[in-house]
Design brief:
Structural class: alpha+beta
Function: Catalyzes the hydrolysis of the gamma-glutamyl amide bond of hercynyl-gamma-L-glutamyl-L-cysteine sulfoxide to produce hercynylcysteine sulfoxide, a step in the biosynthesis pathway of ergothioneine.
CATH architecture: 4-Layer Sandwich
Shape: globular
Keywords: Glutamine amidotransferase, Hydrolase
Domain Glutamine amidotransferase type-2: 2-259
Number of strands: 14
Pathway: Amino-acid biosynthesis; ergothioneine biosynthesis
Pfam families: GATase_4 (PF13230)
Distance between the termini: 31 Å
Radius of gyration: 17 Å
């Protein structure tokens, strides 16, 4: 369920990244090519981006489908950035959270998205509630599994974990409580990207001069796209990608060079 994408590299317009490619995130909202769960990503969307001189990203989120938002079409044409995180949300059960449930979630310099599900939500999360301070639970941006996973990640970031460790430890923690959970997590601070492939597809493309894209699926047929193995953590910047086993706390990433 859901499709998401993060980019760091030379300045691009949102339209060049999210709309123009043949199999763009826009098209994936109604015709994903590699989505294993769900069919139509029409229950909201969001995009976050970074502007020069401001560490905190801007966001544009809506509760409806991305293809129906004419304001986003204008925004995508003129907004340019060197770092973007965007997501389209799978059709789900009715809820009252509206655009608050749409990724990316944000705090400070961070943007976050979750592609997947926690089966048995919210009961499955009960063992994890005690790991969070009450103020974090009261501050959940939405009453969804993704918002709760974000709270777990953010708690670790605030405690001093690096992004890779925060994602891996959260994925392992949630998977222990809900073994069938799908936990493709995506995080950026505007300079680096961290992600987990855990139960759904994840791909990346990196090339000198073109930056790095990490996405649920390729948005074009460029031969540089590479699939990330399941249960893998990825860290990347505009020049390259690191991969390591996400379920092995002692794993050391190995650099995958740009080609």
């Amino acid at each position: 369920m859901c499709r998401h994408l993060a980019y760091v590299g030379p300045e691009l317009s949102l339209g060049d990244l999210l709309v123009a490619p043949a199999h763009s995130l826009l098209r994936q909202s109604w015709e994903p090519r590699r989505q294993r769960y769900g069919t139509v990503n029409a229950d909201g969307f969001g995009v976050g981006w970074y502007a020069p001189g401001d560490r905190a990203p801007a966001r544009y989120r809506r509760a409806g489908p991305i293809w129906a938002d004419l304001s986003f079409a204008d925004l995508a044409r003129v907004v340019r950035s060197t770092a973007v995180l965007a997501a389209v949300r799978d059709a789900t059960l009715a809820g009252a959270d509206a655009e608050a449930a749409a990724a990316p979630f944000a705090s400070g310099r961070w943007l976050f998205s979750h592609n997947g599900a926690v089966p048995g939500w919210p009961d499955a999360a009960a063992p994890l509630v005690r790991t969070l301070p009450p103020v974090d639970l009261l501050s959940l941006p939405a009453r969804t599994d993704s918002a709760f996973v974000w709270a777990l990640v953010l708690h670790r970031l605030r405690a001093g974990d690096g992004p890779e460790r925060a994602l891996c430890e959260t994925a392992r923690e949630v998977a222990r409580a809900a073994p069938a959970a799908r936990l493709n997590l995506l995080l950026t601070d505007g300079t680096t990207i961290a992600a987990t492939a855990w139960g759904d597809s994840l791909w990346y493309r990196t090339e000198p001069g073109r930056g790095t894209v990490v996405a649920s699926e390729p948005y074009d047929d460029d031969p540089l796209w590479r699939e990330v193995p399941d249960r893998t953590v990825l860290t990347a910047d505009s020049t390259g990608v690191l991969l390591a086993p996400a379920d092995d706390p002692a794993a050391v990433p190995s650099k995958e060079p740009c080609t």
